[in-house]
Structures are given as C-alpha cells and as structure tokens.
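User: I'm new to structure prediction. If I give you an amino acid sequence, what do you actually give back? Let's try with this one:
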Amino acid sequence: MAGAKLRGGGDEPITEINIVPLVDIILVVLIIFMVTTTYIVKPAIKIDLPDAATGENLEPTSLGIGVAADGRLMLDGKLITEDELKARVSEEFAKDKNVVCLISGDKDARFGPVVHMVDLVKTLGVTKFAVNIDPNLVINPDAPAAAP
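Assistant: Good question. You get back a string of structure tokens that encode the predicted 3D arrangement of the chain. For your 148 residues, that looks like this:
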C-alpha cells in the first residue's frame, strides 16, 4: 500500500521532515538560473546609446551595426571596415531578402556617420532596419525647452 507507514501505528506524530521535494525544487531553480545567465551576459564593446521615451521591441535582428563615438564601425560587436560591412550586408541580403539591420550609434557619435550607415544598408537593398535607442529617458512635457 503506497500510503502505509513503515513504523508502528497510525497515531504517532510525524517527527521527520522529508527533504527530497525541497532538494528537487532547489535543483530545478538552480538549473533555470544557470540557463538564463548565459543569455544575460554577452561580451560586447560599450556603446552609450542615446535616450528616447518611445520605442518598441523588435524581432531578433540578423545584423547589428554599431557606430562608436570615434567613428569606428562594428558588426555584431566586432570591429569591421566599411568595405567588409558592405560585403557582409550584401551576403546576408543575398541569403535572405528579409534581413533586418539594427543600427546603434553612440550618443557622442556624430550624426553623419549614423545616417551614412542607414543610407548604406538601404542602397544595398535592405528594407528592414531600425535605429537602436535607450528607452530609459522619460520626457517631461512640462519642462522648458533647451536653448539652441
């Protein structure tokens, strides 16, 4: 009988704690923690994104293009030249016409190189692209406008 006690009668109080379910739960939580931490920590070059109050989440991108403050270009976190970038974007576009480019510009980067990257991917045929922003800024509509 599955519910029968191993010792004595049925009137004795339970004096032992069954820790097997507790150990099972802790092991499952540990496994979940180990799996999720691999997605959280990603090595990358730091780009300080500009703030914006609006924005939306995108589907996973195929190509991540970054423009550093000093004008260096990065593709998926690795330094790259403009010619190499053109070749790689053309190659990915040839494989999949729905390739998505996520363009990130450091907030201290000049505006021209970021616009140049948008123009570059458009001339190579990519129609799906987005400019990456940092959504942490909250705009106060009652705040006075900054002087030019």
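You can read the tokens as a compact description of the fold. Here is one thing that stands out. The beta strands are 63-67, 73-75, 78-80, 100-105, 128-132.
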